[in-house]
Automatic annotation (TrEMBL), chain A:
GO terms for biological process: hydrogen peroxide catabolic process. GO terms for molecular function: haptoglobin binding; heme binding; metal ion binding; organic acid binding; oxygen binding; oxygen carrier activity; peroxidase activity. One of its GO terms (cellular component) is haptoglobin-hemoglobin complex. This is Hemoglobin subunit beta-2-like. Pfam families: Globin. Keywords: Heme, Iron, Metal-binding, Oxygen transport, Transport. PROSITE patterns: GLOBIN. SUPFAM superfamilies: Globin-like (SSF46458).
UniProtKB/TrEMBL annotation, chain B:
The keyword Kinase does not apply. Belongs to the globin family. Involved in oxygen transport from gills to the various peripheral tissues. GO terms for biological process: hydrogen peroxide catabolic process. GO terms for molecular function: haptoglobin binding; heme binding; iron ion binding; organic acid binding; oxygen binding; oxygen carrier activity; peroxidase activity. This is Hemoglobin subunit alpha-1. InterPro entries: Globin, Globin-like_sf, Globin/Proto, Hemoglobin_a-typ, Hemoglobin_oxygen_transport, Hemoglobin_pi.
Amino acid sequence: MVEWTDFERATIADIFSKMKYEVVGPAALSRCLVVYPWTQRYFGNFGNLYNAAAIMGNPMVAKHGTTILHGLDRAVKNMDNIKSEYAELSVLHSEKLHVDPDNFRLLSDCLTIVVAGSLGKEFNGDVQAAFQKFLAVVVNSLGRQYH
Amino acid sequence: MSLTAKDKDTVKAFWAKIAGKADDIGTDALSRMLVVYPQTKTYFSHWKDLSPGSAPVRKHGQTVMGGVADAVKKIDDLSAGLLSLSELHAFTLRVDPANFKILSHNILVVLATMFPTDFTPEVHVSVDKFLAALSRALSEKYR
């Protein structure tokens, strides 16, 4: 079981209560597709991903980015049981979507950078540590059911 | 994944914008690294104060960013340009090269907080590639 300090719980709750999902989600996913272009392999039917401008302006990318970010809500609401919260999603990503779980780490790095950009100085070392720990637990849970 | 001409131009142009804040970037990146990745503290047991923004952290942040600035100048041949630094890290400091990735990540986070509009995805990918190339050059002499 993951142990969370009061500070970590408060920090995660705070970040997500102020989260602009339709801005951060699209920004994180599109940044991931630009910075790690091999991740585009999973989005063959998303249309034009030919260059950074196309990716950043692609409505399917934007919509999916928002969806993914909302997917984190269940972890925010149940921080003490993230592994079981994502068991089904983990099976989905493994058996149906065939996503290499290393991609979860790449996306979470991009999400960290986008959140850092929007919070600025407020995103200090302690906040970063809490946020990265939270994402690491989610990433681990999403990869848990792969076999 | 070597640096294209576009990557080099992007890195040099971005560096020109941020060079004035190099010391702050170094201090913040190092401070974050020590907090977020506590295992990195094992390399600094000889410092009196490992807290964010402390004097040894600030001084070392300057040293590290000085190295980055040098790498930008030598971007066309990093392995040759960083040869002596690689020898230093390989034979004297013996920093596990996995830590280069960790510090690079924290530099990117600091760039995002300090330059949110300039640190676009295109700049991000070129800088990420540059830091990876820098890390590789630094690892040259390890074995």
